[in-house]
Specification:
This protein is an alpha/beta fold and 406 residues long. Helix content is 39%, strand content 16%. The protein contains 13 helices and 15 strands. It has helices spanning 3-14, 69-79, 90-102, 115-130, 168-171, 182-192, 211-225, 245-249, 275-278, 296-312, 314-336, 361-371, 388-405; strands at 36-40, 43-46, 51-54, 108-112, 134-138, 152-154, 157-158, 174-177, 196-201, 228-233, 255-258, 269-273, 340-343, 350-353, 374-375. The strands form 4 sheets. The chain has a 7-stranded mixed sheet with strand order 4-12-11-10-9-5-8, sandwiched between helices. Strands 1-2-3-15 form a 4-stranded mixed sheet. The chain starts with a helix and ends with a helix. Keywords: Isomerase, Pyridoxal phosphate.
Length: 406
């Protein structure tokens, strides 16, 4: 057995699915490695020492790059002072203040460790604020989606109508609607609008430009019925714009959840909103509390990460390098006759199969990309560490991958 195969066997023996994160479990071995052991800049190395130009970025959180100096130094500096205390640390206040400066909807902010956890908090706040029970979910909001039958179980995978492990009575309170499907949303409100606490929206990466008209329409509909509007900015925050889609499209929600772009890979999430809405989780309100919400290493990383964003036009870099990378790859697909297309806004587009083509072509391409030293996924990202020469080298490697397929 190869080293990679040995790791996969050990992972599957002791961890259901072979990973605590479903999307990280290798799907295209032997070309795809079972584990990664090191990262530097925009490159990662597997257990056998093979290098890959990385566009997974930890599935999104590594926005600046691996071992980014300012962030790593902030973590080391804070480590010498302590990790977690029995009282708030000044960093908790400072990072919350920065979020309130940068995010349009944020008048107050609180911290947790993962996006899904923060989304659960936002839903609880919405129910407490409105006194209503029903939630409408649009797009993939993490594994919490599985509360409602028929929604995304994982990206690109629909949950069954009856979800294992979820009581039918609870599942019945969670409804799903499609991105940019305003008619379906209107029908839900016509049927039970007075019982809907919130609409939770995660943008569709492939068709995110529809947000120009969809976000204003959803905002108007929620106001009409007295429901809250919650944005899932776990991916889009600090990537499409510093303040996420709410800044980019100019439509402000009542609550929003940020996570992947905050701390360059350190585990941190934030749920933010208006002072009035966030009052629901204040003293005398619904209790949302976590010992590790104010853990200082992640907050130090967040402070440093957001400083780099503000000072160096990180978002502009993600747009420019994203366009260079993904438009270049689309040119290769066309030239080689491969029926794939990278669609969406350049900082976080999605790989799509052209109509009428065999859906397996995407898996074949990812497998070939790994073979030639490029790490990709369904939604792939550039980071601030992807420079012109890295993009050129990645496209050269992917040209060989496309050649193998052709």
């Amino acid at each position: 057995m190869t080293i990679s195969e040995q790791w996969r066997e050990r992972l599957e023996r002791t961890i259901p699915w072979g990973s605590s994160t479903c999307s990280k479990a290798a799907a295209w071995m032997p070309e795809e490695p079972a584990v990664m052991v090191r990262g530097k800049g925009c490159r990662v190395w597997d257990a056998e020492g093979k290098e890959y130009i990385d566009f997974r970025n930890g599935l999104g959180p590594v926005t600046l790059g691996y071992q980014f100096p300012e962030v790593d130094e902030a973590i080391r500096s804070q480590l010498s002072s302590g990790i977690v205390f029995g009282h708030p640390h000044p960093l908790e206040c400072e990072v919350a203040e920065t979020l309130c400066e940068l995010i349009p909807s944020a008048e107050q902010a609180r911290f947790l460790k993962t996006g899904g956890e923060a989304m659960a908090a936002a839903i609880r706040i919405a129910r407490a604020s409105t006194g209503r029970d029903r939630i409408v979910q649009i797009g993939y909001n993490g594994w919490l989606n599985a509360l409602g039958g028929g929604g995304p179980l994982l990206p690109g995978q629909q949950a069954p109508k009856a979800v294992l492990g979820v009581p039918a009575a609870l599942s019945a309170l969670h409804h799903t609607a499609g991105w940019n499907d305003l008619h379906a949303l209107e029908r839900l409100f016509e049927a039970c609008g007075e019982q809907i606490a919130a609409v939770v929206v995660a943008a569709d990466y492939e068709r995110m430009e529809c947000g120009t008209t969809f976000y204003p329409a959803v905002r108007e509909l929620t106001r009409k019925y007295g429901a809250l509007l919650v944005y899932d900015e776990i991916v889009t925050g600090f990537r499409i714009a510093i303040g996420g889609v709410q800044q980019y499209f100019g439509v402000t929600p009542d609550l929003a959840v940020f996570s992947k772009g905050i701390a360059n890979g350190m585990p941190l999430s934030a749920y933010v909103g208006s002072r009035e809405t966030m009052a629901a989780c204040g003293r005398g309100g619904t209790v949302i509390s976590s010992t590790f919400g104010g853990e200082t290493l992640s907050l130090a990383a967040a402070k440093a990460t957001m400083a780099v964003y503000r000072e160096r036009d990180v978002v502009g870099h993600l747009w420019r390098q994203g366009e260079r990378m993904w438009s270049g790859l689309n040119t290769l697909f066309d030239r080689c006759g491969i029926p794939l297309e990278v669609k969406g806004l350049w900082p976080c587009p999605a790989f799509t199969v052209k109509p009428g083509a065999d859906s397996r072509v995407k898996s074949r391409f990812f497998r070939s990309a790994f073979k030639h030293g490029v790490s990709l996924y369904n939604v792939s990202y550039v980071s601030f560490s992807h420079q012109d020469e890295d993009i050129a080298e990645a496209l050269l490697r992917l040209e060989r991958a496309c050649g193998d397929m052709a």
